[in-house]
Design goal:
The complex is a heterodimer. In chain A, the strands form 2 sheets. Chain A has a 9-stranded mixed β-sheet. Chain A is α/β, with parallel strands linked by helices. In chain A, helix 3 crosses helix 14. In chain A, helix 4 links the parallel strand 2 and strand 3. The radius of gyration of chain A is 21 Å and the shape is globular. Chain A has 16 helices and 15 strands. Chain B is of the alpha+beta class. In chain B, the strands form 3 sheets. In chain B, strands 1-2-5-12-6 form a 5-stranded antiparallel β-sheet. Chain B has a 4-stranded mixed β-sheet with strand order 10-9-7-11. A 3-stranded mixed β-sheet of chain B has the order 3-4-8, with helices on one face. Chain B is globular, with a radius of gyration of 18 Å. The chains are: A alpha/beta, B alpha+beta. Chains A and B meet through helix 1, helix 8 and helix 14 of A and helix 1 of B.
């Protein structure tokens, strides 16, 4: 088939989970009727923010917390009434959390740590709620994919927290495009434009540029810890593109750089052209600098219509078969709330098919392909990227274990 | 583990965990079909039960495909192919299909025109012809199967975005399903009788007919321009009934008088 191996990759991965649905009774006895106990790994800004949403859901009890930094985990522990003996610090603190009796873990650490922490959590028999991106490199993506399968085998839920995929307007528009409502899809664009984003981290890093702990604290500016902007942030736009096309790119050519950013190692703008199966071209552009324009957009142009989607705005189809669509005002939060509810629902219902994993790995690899092409300023194929299996090495020297 | 969830939550979430149901024991035999005066080969579908929608974990599942066990209490006949342009022109004045040919499926017809065609077939045949309900369509499409057609097989049964060369193809060129029906997936998507709306959140349902009112109708089956997520027996979409689309046609069913007993399931 002309769409080739990219589609099979996803289908096969998804199918593995299919037979693993079990009855609620078999799910885990008491879990079906009880509050789930949680351990939160990563107690910084998003970790604290999302823990509050978990608590407000009502079906969770936050029982343990881990973060490298003692002051953060203590502040978090105080806010969510986590007993002092269940607060863990250092790089290996999460392992002690995994030895505790929590049912599930929420991983909100810097992305470089995600694959290892998720793998260890599944090995420890925990359900996993994982922030995007799932990984910063190809080996990490493979680890996460494997962890999703292992979780399914062990009847554990593994959910990746992408917000757009919970949005009914996105879902309907994507479904219609896949049915053929915009005709043959010829080309598309995925863009992510925002301001500097990591102002505090830049300040911390400027104060102590050689301090390893400050480098960790300013992870959003470190290309290995974050995966760089295209992987860490821009993945939202690329995820929608791979979702609509139901495929991964065959190759990419790109470039980018840093012209406004002074702190850290990440770039501040990218430009990539992806070629998807059937020669569908998707141009990608992003910036994380300046003022005046913020938008996360994915637009697909077909012979009979256009799918237009904005993370912070409207989702619609224009053309011969228009779809009025609409807008969820606070998708950033509402999407997380929906995923938190889904995570609880799947665990209590015994649905361990883990459908978010394969799709998330595919869009993560797509972002990595774009980054690789941009960093090299060259054309890179999917096969080349996968066989190179290149790992990003984070510099953790000087950090406490 | 300190507090019990409200009972309502447990009841609601229990619904999707339906057991897989096989085909009715009384499956269509190869000779169990008649050809009507318009040239439609009508295959008898037995009464029976099937899992309508998708269980969580099914590849490419959409949330709206909330699963329930549906029982069809009456047998019916369904055409083994989509309505061809020859069949259409035997009863209708014009053919707007962008690609024209006697054995090509008719397209670019509105839901009301599809209804009108069914009425004319009924008058000619002296029998009750109509569009299939959404449940009848899915039952016939599944032909006893629980899982979607795999990626490796889809090209053998369907004309779709990857193999259609951007157009319709003569009917009956792809492999039929287990009950002898061609092009249920791909080639052209098909109008159904039902208005489009969310499925009822029930575990079991009998002879469902969709929402009572609505001008958006369910279209099923995917088409020559669709991607694999649309090429599933459980996939559904809604289209305003006035639309005349180059990838949407129809297939007819015939009501039959005999009352089949519910023969149970494997």
């Amino acid at each position: 088939m002309r769409r080739g191996s990219r589609r099979e990759f996803l289908t096969t991965a998804a199918a593995i989970g299919a037979p693993l649905l079990v009855s609620p009774r078999a799910a885990r006895g008491s879990e079906a009727n009880s509050r789930l106990t949680l351990g939160v790994i990563g107690c910084g800004g998003r970790g604290t923010w999302i823990a509050d949403l978990f608590q407000k859901h009502g079906g969770y009890e936050i029982r343990a917390a881990a973060d490298y930094f003692p002051d953060r985990v203590d502040e978090f522990g105080g806010k969510f009434q986590v007993a002092p003996q269940r607060r863990y610090t250092g790089l290996q603190g999460y392992r002690r959390l995994l030895e505790s009796d929590v049912d599930a873990v929420v991983i909100e650490s810097p992305p470089w740590f995600h694959p290892g922490q998720a793998r260890d959590a599944v090995a420890a028999g925990k359900h996993v709620y994982l922030a995007k991106p799932v990984a910063v490199d190809v080996p990490g993506c493979r680890t996460v994919e494997e962890s999703g399968h292992k979780a399914a085998e062990k009847q554990k839920c593994f959910l990746v927290d992408f917000q757009t995929r919970t949005d009914p307007f996105y879902r309907e528009a994507v479904k219609r495009a896949q049915y053929g409502d915009i005709g043959r899809i010829v080309c598309g664009e995925a863009t992510y434009f925002c301001g500097p984003t990591w102002g505090d981290q830049a300040k911390w890093l400027a104060e102590k540029p050689d301090d390893p702990e400050m480098r960790l604290k300013a992870w959003g500016l470190d290309r290995a810890l974050s995966g760089d902007v295209i992987t860490e942030q821009n993945i939202h736009a690329l995820d929608v593109a791979t979702w609509v096309l139901d495929a991964a790119p065959l190759h990419a050519v790109g470039s980018g750089g840093r012209k406004a950013r002074t702190a850290g190692t990440c770039w501040d703008h990218f430009s990539v052209s992806f070629t998807f199966p059937q020669d569908v071209l998707v141009t990608f552009c992003s910036k994380q600098l300046g003022d005046g324009w913020d938008d996360i957009c994915c637009r697909m142009y077909g012979t009979e219509g256009t799918l237009d989607s904005h993370y912070f705005g409207e989702v619609s189809i224009r053309g011969r078969q228009p779809y009025r669509g609409g807008k969820i005002p606070g998708l950033y939060q509402d999407g997380a709330i929906a995923n938190i509810a889904t995570f609880h629902d799947r665990i209590t219902r015994g649905d361990f098919s883990n459908p978010t994993v394969a799709a998330s790995v595919r869009s993560n690899l797509t972002a990595i392909l774009g980054r690789t092409a941009a960093w090299r300023s060259a054309r890179v194929s999917w096969e080349e990227m996968m066989s190179a299996n290149e790992a990003l090495e984070a510099d953790l020297t000087g950090l406490r274990s | 583990m300190t507090r019990r969830l409200p009972l309502a939550v447990v009841v609601i979430v229990a619904a999707p965990a339906l057991p897989a149901y096989g085909p009715a024991l009384d499956t269509p035999a190869s000779g169990d079909a008649v050809v009507n005066s318009v040239g439609m080969r009508m295959v008898r579908m037995p009464a029976g039960s099937f899992p309508m929608g998708s269980l969580p974990g099914t590849p490419m599942r959409q949330e709206e495909e909330f699963p329930r066990r549906v029982t069809l209490t009456r047998a019916f006949r369904i055409a083994s192919t989509e309505v061809t342009q020859r069949q259409w022109l035997a009863l209708m004045p014009s053919n707007r299909s962008p690609r024209q040919g006697d054995d090509l499926p008719v397209t670019s017809v509105s839901w009301k025109e599809a209804q009108e065609f069914c009425l004319k077939v009924s008058q000619k045949e002296g029998a009750a012809y109509r569009l299939p309900t959404e449940a009848e369509w899915e039952y016939a499409c599944r032909a006893g199967a629980d899982s979607p057609v795999g990626a490796a097989e889809i090209g053998a049964v369907a004309w779709y975005a990857d193999n259609s060369e951007e157009t319709t193809h003569p009917v009956r060129q792809k492999r039929p399903n287990a009950w002898g029906l061609h092009d249920m997936l791909g080639n052209v998507a098909e109008w159904t009788l039902d208005a489009y709306g969310p499925y009822p959140r029930v575990e079991e349902d009998k002879d469902p007919k969709g929402p009572a009112a609505g001008s958006t109708r369910v279209v099923r089956g995917g088409a020559w321009r669709s991607f694999p997520p649309a090429l599933r027996c459980a996939a559904r979409t809604g289209t305003p009934e006035a639309h005349q689309l180059p990838h949407v046609g129809l297939r007819v069913v015939q009501e039959i008088e005999e009352h089949d007993s519910i023969v149970g399931n494997r």
